[in-house]
Amino acid sequence: MKLAADECCDAPLVDALRADGHDVLYVREIAPGTDDDTVLQMAAGQQRILLTEDKDFGELVVRLKLPAYGVVLVRMNPADSAAKLARLRHLLLRHAHRLPGSFVVLDEKKARFRPL
Fold it and tell me: Per-residue pLDDT tens for 100-114?
């Protein structure tokens, strides 16, 4: 799957997703400090699902209705990389077909899907 990882995502998480075979563009590597609007445009322009831990993206795509290909907002303990990776792997394995066109809030127990 084609993903874009926001700068706030952990590098080990990005590395693990790449090792799983996903095509992950990592904002921290290519354009650190890029504003949220530009990150969202870049991900949408390349048809990538945006992975983030930044709630501001919910504001951009839900309330302001900025274009997005798909967004996964990870709402878990930032220090628990292993749990975040396990939940993301589960989401990608079971629900990859639902991610384009959705804003997803992923927590320790569930994934809430909202159409964009």
Answer: 999 999 999 999 999
